[in-house]
Amino acid sequence: MKTNDKNRAVIAESIARSWKDPSFKNEMLNNPKATLEAAGASIDGGHEVVVVENTPGVVHAVLPLKGDQSGHLDQIEAAIEELRNLPEGVEVRVHRDAANKSYIAIPEAPSAAGRLSDADLEQVAGGKGGNNAVTQGTVVQTGYSASTVAVDAEVEVAAAAEVAAAAAVAVVVVPCFIS
């Protein structure tokens, strides 16, 4: 399911939408397959989709199919490093995709300080086209314009970091190593 460019874009867009629309996020969590199909994803009839949500105390790490892991070793190593740097007390739950089951982790929404506009969310989601960072499997770093006011610049840098982290999370939807 996650190897299809269109599906990856739909998943990333759905994650971004879930940050802004609590009822949509609820649908994603409670009926993920139908919600993703309604958003445009193509999912085989016997394929199960499980959506989990990260919280301040729980982080979900999703491994690709066992046979696909060798092609993603650099991403897995980067995810392991991120897991090592989590604060004490954060629980890590590891899931592995299977031939007939895919896991999708919804990351925590960027904080209010880094509130995202619709355009920013579109950038994180990778846009609707097939030729974007999400569908190409590369990490996207986005940022805001620089500010001349020192206090604003600090907020802008923090917001840019959150957007970059969100973009990286959206990109790892295929496969989703850490979200």
Named at the architecture level, the CATH assignment is Alpha-Beta Complex
Count of the separate structural domains? 1
The total count of strands amounts to 4
- What shape does the CA trace take? globular
Provide the low-confidence segments as ranges.
128-179
Q: Give the N-to-C terminal Cα separation.
A: 18 Å
| Largest sheet properties | 2 strands, parallel
Please report the number of helical segments: 7
The gyration radius over C-alpha positions equals: 16 Å
What does this protein structure show overall?
- This protein has 179 residues and is an alpha/beta fold.
- The protein has a single domain, classed as Nitrile Hydratase, Chain A (Alpha-Beta Complex), CATH 3.90.330.
- It has helices spanning 5-20, 22-30, 32-38, 73-84, 118-125, 133-136, 150-171, and strands at residues 48-53, 58-63, 91-96, 101-106.
- It has a two-stranded parallel ribbon.
- Helix 5 (118-125) packs parallel to helix 7.
- It is globular.
- Mean pLDDT is 73; it is low at 128-179.
